[in-house]
What we know:
Elements: E1 7-14, E2 26-27, H1 30-36, E3 37-46, H2 48-53, E4 63-67, H3 78-84, H4 86-97, E5 101-110, H5 134-144, E6 153-163, E7 173-176, E8 186-191, E9 198-203, E10 211-213, E11 221-229, E12 240-242, E13 257-267
Parallel strand pairs: 2-8, 3-10
Antiparallel strand pairs: 1-3, 4-11, 5-13, 6-11, 6-13, 7-10, 7-12, 8-9
Amino acid sequence: MDVQPPIRAEVRYVNAEWKGRKEIPRIGSRETRRANTSRQPIEVHDARPGLLNGDITLDGSGFTLEKLHHEIENFRDIQATAQAYYPAVEELVVRVSGAKKAFVRDHLVRTEVPIDFNDGYARFVHCDYNMKRLKEMSEAVLSARGIEPQKNWIYAWFNTWQPFDNPAINNPLAFIDWRSLPEDDVIDYFYTGRNRDSLVAAPVYNPDHVWRYVPSMKTDEILVFKQMDGRRNTSVYCPHTSFDNTSAPDDAPPRRSVETRLLVVFEED
């Protein structure tokens, strides 16, 4: 395997001034993102060797890489995607995580021509959810499906991320390895996009964070990564963002990707 050299980049982190304050930032537009985040230097490392040798794992680092073939022609067709893609993703996540059940809540398409701020490429380091909302969010999904929660169930939320049309060369997704993330680096913020007011989480900058990505992801490759996990002795968050890949050739195709958000149910021993 040819290991790609680290890429030096800049990504936006939530400003450290918010750490320790009672008030929390609100981000849901380009203007509020610029006001509450600032660029910080990072070095992004090729994750493929660690994934291959077992050093990088879902429960250790917070993410893993799998294969998933599909025949979806238009991910913006919500019904077709839900019927054909969701079950395949749920089956894959159950297999790689050891969970009892997985339920895709929704999906999001990101391309070089975003509809609005919310489906553009991610431009600051964040987690999609917040552990304070784990039970509330999980039981809402179960309730909508007419499922009664069991006392021995433990909840987690995962994302999947898969390129389509082209390999993911420009604007790939990068992750902070959970093993390098002190939990008190993660603070609360409100995501206010699309007229919602959701409590979520994001880390503040720490030069000790270890950043990883999967170079040139193919369209049959899929990332599975944590959003929050209620189990003990495992990775909890996997903060992430896209970044400008300065090593990409000038003629590299645009990145187009689909991501799903899933409730994952584990049974406590």
